Amino acid sequence: MEKPELVDDIGHPFLSDQTYMVQADDMDDDGEQLTAENTDDSNHDGDKMGIPLREQDRFLPIANVAKIMKRAIPETGKIAKDARECVQECVSEFISFITSEASERCHMEKRKTINGEDILFAMSTLGFDNYVEPLKLYLQKYREAAKTDKNLHTIHSNDIVFEEIPDDNYNSSMTGNILATDAGTTETVIFTYQQDNVHQFQIG
Amino acid sequence: MTHLPQSRVRTIMKTADGADNIGKEAVFLSTRATEMFIKLLVKEGYRNTNSAKKLNYNNLVNVIHNKSRYEFLEIVIPKKITVRQYKELMAKKENRQQDKGSSDEHSNSDNDENNS
Fold it and tell me: What is the predicted ipTM?
């Protein structure tokens, strides 16, 4: 059927059926990274079983780092290659640094799992307290998205999906995006799409 | 908006001391914080270029070695010096040892250093 293919062609993150990212602003894109396997610690005990990390695993991908760096400077600015690599290394160091501090607090409180609060606390302690407020907002959005996703899963088994969704959501930016791709066939795409996945991005 | 891969962030977090179990929220916040960190470091580095418009390694070094919040990076990101500067540094060291009352032999070798 062409409709699922069309959906795949669009390739927009929210079209995958694993999506958490209903919110248009900053909760989109890398949702596919946020799979249960990736975030569930119990599946990753093997990570620390003495298996040395490959060089590339110790750092974040240079392309991602470079993109973010570019955004921090004016359009006309340039970045030297060794500056990019430098930031890439600094970033891994930063992550370990914050995590160490967070884990200390976690252990002090006799907990076994490092949570969001530990990270926020570490930020504050290590001189990045101006990050705390924005991070709290991100956390709030993240929790809301996670909550609605839980609701989605329960709705999914019923067929009251369509009744749950008010009409004006069809005019949201997401459908707007779909409409932008191909005016002619869009309508049909939406309808078929709705039957499979739409509840995932209509809510929130 | 570009984001960093949370799975990789998680891998890196696990290399930290004492990090056994890491919750989803912790990974998420660390990822966002890292993005903010990159922007901050780069902005400050760029300011250091004094409108030269190109961010170089040394700009980052200057920021890292002059701001206390980046102290944790000082070891990771060393200052770069030229061979000449290194030799001058070594010469200075020799001079100091000399002043501490060592023998004449040292002054001979010291001259050699200075001639380079």
Answer: 0.76
